[in-house]
Amino acid sequence: MLTDQYLNALSEAKENAVTSFIQGHTPFDSAEAAWAVNALYREVTGADCPAIRLGRGPSHAGELLKQNLTPQVERKNLADDLFSFAVGHAENCRLALSEALPGEVIGNLSNMVFRDLNFKMFRSVAEPVMTTLSASGHFPDRYVLRSSVYPSLQDADWISYYDILGKVFRINFPVPAAFRAFFTSGGMQLFAFSDFALLVPRPRLISVNESFSLHGEEAAAVEWEDGTKLYFHNGVAIPEKPVMRPDEVTREDIVSETNAEVRRCYQEILGSERFAKCLGLVTLDSDVDRFGHDITLYRTRDKDKLAGNYIRFAGVTCPSTQRRYFLCVPPHITSAVEAVAWSFGKTPEDYRPEIET
Questions:
Q1: Backbone phi, psi, residue 53, to 5°
Q2: 3-class SS of residue 326
Q3: How many CB atoms neighbour CB 269 within 10 A?
Q4: Which of 165, 202, 269, 303 sits in a 20 to 30 Å window from 75, CA-based?
């Protein structure tokens, strides 16, 4: 049974962990991170790391990685060894928790604490950051994904989970000190090889919206000391231009974008009128709703490369805010009334709203 005292302590500790995670680590504690690397190397190789390289961010780290991965040197990637080491200790933490608390309490803790940490740290931040970096071209092929990088920012949730429970319930969980030190020092990635290690620090800036999705209104959502920047709009990775130079967005920028989610972000950032102007929409049909507002069915001037057809939009006006919106509708729609009716899940015959929202 979790008393109010425990619930309040868990809530406060969880909030502090998430706040610390989002705020990032500046400056990066290279001494603590180096200690963590040597401790990890001693666990899997029996000796300190032969050489530690420090990148100021993904771009700089990628250059260092390319310089040090010379084909003349025989080396082993230690990622699998480090991963096995972490899995073993994570399992020991799980066993320690099962021995200390009843199963019902553990289930409640998983729902209340770990799932929230996992969402706010891993799903909303760590995973999209790492995925975006994987596609960025900063690192050489084969040295981008988790199979080649361990430990990483992706460990923040489970380490924080056991740290919080250990503090609140006074349980001594066997989280390796080296893993905790790597995380608290501000480490994001560790490329570990038999002859050298490359440290990549966490971003100096992480910006999220109210839903904890990565989001930068007029700036990068993620930024490192070396100038590497990632742009996100409500959790969707997008190009720099719509965020930093929206006035320069052209029709070609929009129609050449093959990701439908990114294209939707263009519309949200530019606004309906500017988005429509950029696309050069062609009017197919127009009508008037019961409030006297114009409703219009448009299609794009050219066929969409992704859809293989023209994209159609319904131009409507919200009666309460008077704002103009462009709603994407299926290609079979042939009239403005049908388009608006479809957006409400109705047919033109039964679409007779008292109030539109």
A1: -105, 145
A2: strand
A3: 18
A4: 202
pLDDT in tens, 48-86: 999 999 999 999 998 998 888 888 888 888 988 998 888
- How far, in Å, are 29, 182, 305 from residue 20 at the CA level? 15, 15, 43
Considering the entire predicted model, what is its pTM? 0.83
Containing 43, the helix (H) or strand (E) segment is helix 30-45
How far is C-alpha 317 from the chain's CA centre?
A: 33
One-letter identity of residue 296: T
Taking residues 300-324, report their average pLDDT: 80
Provide the β-strand partners of residue 23: none
Q: Which two tokens stand for residue 213?
A: 């999705």
Phi, psi dihedrals of residue 237, rounded to the nearest 5°? -70, 130
Count of all residues that appear for the chain in the document: 357
Give the residue extent of every domain in the chain. 4-201, 251-343
The two tokens of residue 214 are: 């990565």
Tokens encoding 356 = 């539109």
Q: Residue 313 in contact with residue 328, Cβ under 8 Å? A: yes
What tokens were used for 125? 């931040």
Query: Hey, what's the torsion of the CAs at 238, 239, 240, 245, to 10 degrees?
Result: -100
Task: Please tell me the predicted confidence (pLDDT) of residue 147.
Answer: 46
